[in-house]
User: What shape does this take?
Amino acid sequence: MYPRTVVVKDHLEVELWPMLSDDAPALLEFYRALPANDLLYLREDVTTPAAMDRWVEGLESDKAWHLLAAYQGHIIADGELDYPSYGWSRHVGELRLVVDRAFRGSGLSLIMGRELLAQAADEGLHKVMVQMTTEQHMAIQLCKKLGFQHEAVLSEHVQDQYGTLHDVVIMAYFTRQLRR
Assistant: This one.
């Protein structure tokens, strides 16, 4: 199934594949090239080698799965599915998706979101969560298109790099939706 090529808006061919540890330097380059505002709401500073080391460790310990997208040899998107292997929420995964601004609105986010949800079902997850600030309107709309449902809003739950507090919306997708 991977690697494979998908066609997005304007007939652009984009390659998708699961991240390997060798992809970490190119992924770090992708994150370092993003505008500061795109990094504002991410949980951690992903522009450091330490962040990539943690992601590679997650891949190697089967606690995470990344789907990468490239155009003309450069990574343009990273989709991540985290899943715990123990505890009372071991059936719940968390999805995150970051797409280069040039490819937003191209259909790539929807394609990658569907791929990540299919991977969640293949991994036996029952539920997939997303968390984002209430200001991230486009991301919320994407999640609704994918079939996520609103679960909660947590007031002043995150603090960005500038110290500003933001409300977080939590949405959920139940993988049984894929089996219908």
